[in-house]
């Protein structure tokens, strides 16, 4: 296999973001799945950028990751305001099928960790049904104590599964914090936070229609469905992010 050469990251509000294409991302994940150490692959949307601005530990996790890619049209627009080019935006529901096909073809197994009981299991079953070579290494729900005996048992289960890739769907920033805290104990080769991917892909919860997701309006659909829950994240968070970008550009 020819080694994938990642483009140099660009920096937005002190966060390094690799302007990778979907094909390059998938090839990198497969290549690192055959590697000899764990790689942390994170993604950023506007919510993540706001968290990183306000939370030093979260910012450090992003800065220390092996790869950070753009998962949000708002980040692309903010980068454009800052004079930075991020040509690709990729969210997990859009790359999970080619990821499943590529890891399966490479003989690499995937463990799904997160969401309510049965959701990650349904997600794994759908990928296996859709991709004949897909290799599920198992699943576990996300409602366990993130420290102590419960956490130890979950890590032991993941390590015993033979997984090369671990998908963590706790929601941001809990999933990134858990990955950072436990990375040294995990025997997988690649770990990625994926938010609500499991329930979306399994059909338990519907995403916004494609015409909205492709035009940067997915946030509006989510806000419309749960306005109280998402008020701070979108109505306050989106303008705050853009204001920070403008201030940064002006020095």
Chain-averaged pLDDT: 90
**Count of folded domains:** 1
Q: Which residues form runs of ≥5 with pLDDT under 50? A: none
| Helix-strand makeup class | alpha/beta
Largest sheet report: 6 strands, parallel
Relative strand content: 5-15%
Distance between termini? 44 Å
Number of H- or I-type helical stretches: 12
Principal-axis shape equals globular
Q: Which strand order does the major sheet show? A: 4-3-8-7-5-6
Q: Using only CA atoms, what is the Rg? A: 18 Å
Can you give a write-up of this model?
It is a single chain. The protein has twelve helices and eight strands. It is an alpha/beta fold and 251 residues long. The chain has a six-stranded parallel β-sheet with strand order 4-3-8-7-5-6, with helices on both faces. A hairpin with a 2-residue loop joins strand 1 and strand 2. Helix 2 crosses helix 12. The longest helix is centred in the C-terminal third of the chain and has 24 residues. The radius of gyration is 18 Å and the shape is globular. It starts with 9 loop residues before the first strand and ends with a helix. The model has no long low-confidence stretch (mean pLDDT 90).
Record the SSE blueprint:
Elements lengths: L9 E3 L2 E3 L4 H12 L5 E6 L1 H9 L1 H9 L2 E4 L2 H9 L10 H14 L3 E6 L4 H12 L4 E6 L7 H13 L4 E5 L4 H9 L7 E4 L3 H5 L8 H4 L4 H8 L1 H24 L1
Parallel strand pairs: 3-4, 3-8, 5-6, 5-7, 7-8
Antiparallel strand pairs: 1-2
Helix pairs in contact: 1-5, 2-3, 2-12, 4-12, 11-12
Summarize the structure.
The protein is 51% helix and 15% strand.
């Amino acid at each position: 296999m020819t080694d994938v050469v990642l483009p140099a990251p660009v920096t937005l509000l002190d966060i390094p973001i690799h302007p990778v294409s979907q094909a390059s991302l998938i090839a990198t994940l497969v290549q690192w799945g055959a590697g000899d150490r764990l790689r942390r692959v994170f993604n950023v949307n506007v919510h993540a950028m706001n968290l990183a601005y306000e939370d030093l530990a979260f910012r450090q996790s992003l800065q220390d990751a092996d790869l950070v890619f753009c998962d949000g049209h708002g980040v692309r627009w903010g980068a454009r305001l800052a004079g930075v080019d991020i040509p690709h935006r990729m969210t997990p529901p859009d790359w999970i099928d080619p990821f499943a096909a590529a890891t399966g073809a490479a003989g690499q197994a995937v463990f799904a960790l997160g969401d309510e009981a049965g959701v990650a299991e349904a997600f794994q079953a759908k990928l296996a049904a859709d991709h004949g070579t897909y290799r599920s290494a198992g699943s576990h729900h996300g409602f366990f104590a993130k420290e102590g005996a419960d956490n130890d048992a979950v890590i032991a289960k993941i390590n015993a599964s033979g997984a090369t890739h671990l998908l963590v769907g706790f929601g941001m920033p809990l999933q990134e914090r858990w990955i950072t805290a436990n990375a040294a104990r995990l025997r997988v080769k690649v770990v990625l936070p994926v938010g609500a991917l499991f329930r979306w892909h399994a059909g338990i919860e519907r995403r916004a229609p494609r015409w909205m997701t492709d035009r940067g309006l997915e946030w509006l659909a989510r806000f419309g469905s749960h306005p109280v829950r998402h008020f701070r994240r979108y109505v306050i968070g989106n303008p705050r992010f853009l204001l920070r970008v403008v201030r940064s550009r002006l020095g």
